[in-house]
Amino acid sequence: MTSITIYDIAKEANVSVSTVSRVLNDTAPVRASTREKIMSIIEKHQFQPNAQARSLIKKETGTIAIILPDITNPFFPEVFWGAENEARGLGYTFFLCNTAGDYNRESEYLSMLREKRVDGIIFLGGRINLQVCPDNMAQELMDMGRHMPIVLVNGNIAKGGFHRVYTDEGAGAAMAAEHLLELGHREIAFVGGLKELSTTMVKVKAVQKKLREHGLEIPKERQLLGSFSIEDGKREMSKLLDRDNPPTAVICVNDNTAIGAIKSTIEHGLSIPKDISIIGFDDTPLATAVIPELTTISQNTYQLGKQAVDVLHDLINQGKPKKQIILQPELIVRQSTGPVAK
């Protein structure tokens, strides 16, 4: 059986395609007799508009995309979970684009998504987290933003004018430092992250600022940056523990590195938190899957995804949402932090 299109219905009803569109989407009044004729033809042919037809009718595809750098990092699937649930409730389907930290792959996805004519994009990580984004990569994203709405999550492009949804990571890092200070710790280290990424350095700077308020600081030899994986956390923690004067507490850039730090500490024959306290960041499912359970900073990841979709949906529908939505972090105290040993 030959499939019927919106154009076939318009031809059989002797009306314009736009009239059929108004009936299908109930977007404007149509004379009752005309509506009845069109609906009769639709019923006769059991017509159901596919995605391409809906795109022609509404100038929308009903799809949005999310670009993220590392699907294996639990933080990003948690954000996606909030975004997908909200998007489904609003009638969207998703393209999930995992770049594996490759900026060229980001560019490939941007080109593909423009070709696919998605209704909008949520962008996490990658170039928007660089402390200094190269001009060509920034310009590419700004050019894309002229063709479709883009919402940035936990990142920014200077002078890009993008709508943003983000957690105050600096405030979260300050909470972590304050928690350790209240427990009596004065010898504190920072583990994980990359110097070129704003999401790392905003945490380092916030921790240093909080410590300076108490006449303390983290010396350079106790700022062991590397990356964001469990193995990186384990390796950098081992360096700290192999020195003559190890810290009594460690703040990690994320939960992955904190898990690695815990593994290294146990392998060195030390007890957590009796000998050393460890605190993570993100409150991913890993935080409660490890023993001892991890004290960490919640970024409200589900809400990050949900709010990003809400802003994007508003932009797609010509609304005027706030340029910036800032979520507040929360300290989640579990078993991996305790008073400094006397």
TrEMBL record:
This is LacI family DNA-binding transcriptional regulator. It comes from the Bacteria. The keyword Cell cycle does not apply. GO terms for molecular function: DNA-binding transcription factor activity; transcription cis-regulatory region binding. Residues 4-58 form the HTH lacI-type domain. The lineage of its organism: Bacteria, Bacillati, Bacillota, Bacilli, Bacillales. Pfam families: LacI, Peripla_BP_3. InterPro entries: HTH_LacI (IPR000843), LacI/GalR-like_sensor (IPR046335), Lambda_DNA-bd_dom_sf (IPR010982), Peripla_BP_I (IPR028082). SMART domains: HTH_LACI. Keywords: DNA-binding, Transcription, Transcription regulation.
